[in-house]
């Protein structure tokens, strides 16, 4: 069982969350919270007064943004995947009153009261901060590390995106290990390179640029773009990379964190969309969407790891940091 603080949903049906957690849309995270509480698509749709198809679409869009599945099956009583459970706990979406052995396949109102449990042995907690898609990259490694080290619990903070976020989390003791996105090694901040994620541009298959053998910067400058919402930290990372690559896109034709809206606009030829990591991987697999063949490469986004100042005093922290690099 993963350890994490739990915070109850508020009466307005918006969960309480850290203000930095802005990558997925608030609506999608709220629906994820309600799905966890409701236990089924039909019950969640009834609670929110929308259709089951709308619930399924928002959950699928959120999973595409995160880069991993949250639920095993969307039919009948839903069951969280291990990554979904960890994400729910990291986002503090579970009820404050839910027992530690809560069964996500049943509605909270129908669950029997928990039996008294003997005090659990104290476990060392390692705080890991990372963008949600990065958690998707090493979720199996985290599970394996915890399975091999029963005295250690790993708690996630999924709102860190940039070097500024990572430095603050480590300095303030909110993280022992932090992963973040960067375009190069930050000056004055010790970190190490993990891997690079190429930045790509996508358009609908029928778009003239998708059919071109080579796309120039001049072509891009007169083509409308599709973008994430302005408050989304991922948008700023993408814009910084495009600027470094001397790419100026046309005015936004759409600004949305709803990936189904983005995909619909792409297929309709409304504009082009920049993405990297798990999101780019999934877009590249979609029918009716093509990656543009640029005349020169765009800068890649680096994923870097940094440790807190006292990591050397905690062997488990250094061991996990090394394990994640294997």
From TrEMBL:
Transmembrane segments: none annotated. GO terms for cellular component: protein-DNA complex. Residues 123-324 form the LysR substrate-binding domain. The keyword DNA-binding applies. SUPFAM superfamilies: Periplasmic binding protein-like II, Winged helix' DNA-binding domain. Keywords: DNA-binding, Transcription, Transcription regulation. Residues 26-85 form the HTH lysR-type domain. The keyword Cytoplasm does not apply. One of its GO terms (molecular function) is DNA-binding transcription factor activity. Belongs to the LysR transcriptional regulatory family. This is HTH lysR-type domain-containing protein. The lineage of its organism: Bacteria, Pseudomonadati, Pseudomonadota, Alphaproteobacteria, Sphingomonadales.
